[in-house]
Amino acid sequence: MSNTPQPAPVAEERIELKPRNVSFAWEKTPLHWIPGDPFAGHTINVLHLLLPAGERWFVHVYKQVLPYITDDRLRADVIGFIGQEAMHSAAHDDVLPHLKKLGLDPTPYTAQVDWLFEKLLGDRTLPPGRARTWWLMERVATIAAIEHYTAFLGNWILNAETLDERGADPVMLDLLRWHGAEEVEHRSVAFELFMHVDGGYRRRVRTWATGFAALAFLWQRGARFFMANDPAPEVGRASFKEFYRAGRNGMLPSTPSMLKSIPRYLSRSYHPSQEGSTAQAVAYLATSPGANGGH
């Protein structure tokens, strides 16, 4: 257990975490679900490629770290987190057959993502003791870094009114906002778990750098894959210029806001409750069609 002083939450907002049975009907969702902006849509679509494998990996790692948790309240939060992440993985997995039906087969890219999480970041043949514990703590810290960005993205999508104004597909928006709301809802769990079992600042910085670089690489690679394999010939190519444009127009998170999120996570006083609003997340979940039986 960590002896490092833990940053305090901004406010006491803890609620019971539980997975929600969700239902989304994809039959009417077009491939270009943001009218007039296939690049922004495909950049967000990368979530459907990354998250199923990534969140299965989260669950696998957290089941291994459960014996290290000595705080009953945190254990309950981690178990709730595991349930929510498993549901996220399944929900995004369900989108992939629809994309394939629309002429965009994601299999070549998802195979690469599966390799990353199952092989590169998966279990290693290590002797029991310090080496095995070290590798487990590295992965726990990496998940905390990634969850900083999932909370950032969750807060963004809950407030991305431009997508509504541009006529984005309501089912896809509901999936993204349901997921984003749950990311905001459980945003403190991964960081508090890391602080509980390790909490080393150098490890936090090191794994942030690794996680950020991996996410940036995979995301741009996924956007390029989608744009290059889109059956419509006029969609163009993925580029940083397009990403910056879409962010400036409110169709994606802005580049400045993403850069500003870096020093927040690296601050020694950081706590995830600084990101987003639990009240806003819970309010959305209470009205989400997909999270309420599809109605």
Gist?
This protein has helices at about 40-65, 70-95, 95-100, 105-120, 130-160, 160-165, 170-185, 190-195, 200-230, 240-250, 255-265, 280-285. With about 300 residues, it is mostly helical.
Structural write-up:
There is one protein chain. The N and C termini lie far apart (45 Å). The chain has 295 residues and is mostly helical. 39% of the residues are buried. The chain is globular. The chain is 64% helix and 0% strand. α1 (38-65) runs antiparallel to α9.
- Fraction of residues in helix: 55-70%
Structural class: mainly alpha
Could you state the order of secondary-structure elements as H and E? HHHHHHHHHHHH
Mean pLDDT score, rounded? Answer: 91
| Rg calc | 19 Å
Number of strands: 0
Strand content: under 5%
Largest sheet: none
List the helices and strands and how they pair.
Layout: H1 38-65, H2 72-93, H3 95-101, H4 107-120, H5 130-158, H6 161-165, H7 170-185, H8 189-197, H9 201-229, H10 240-248, H11 255-266, H12 278-287
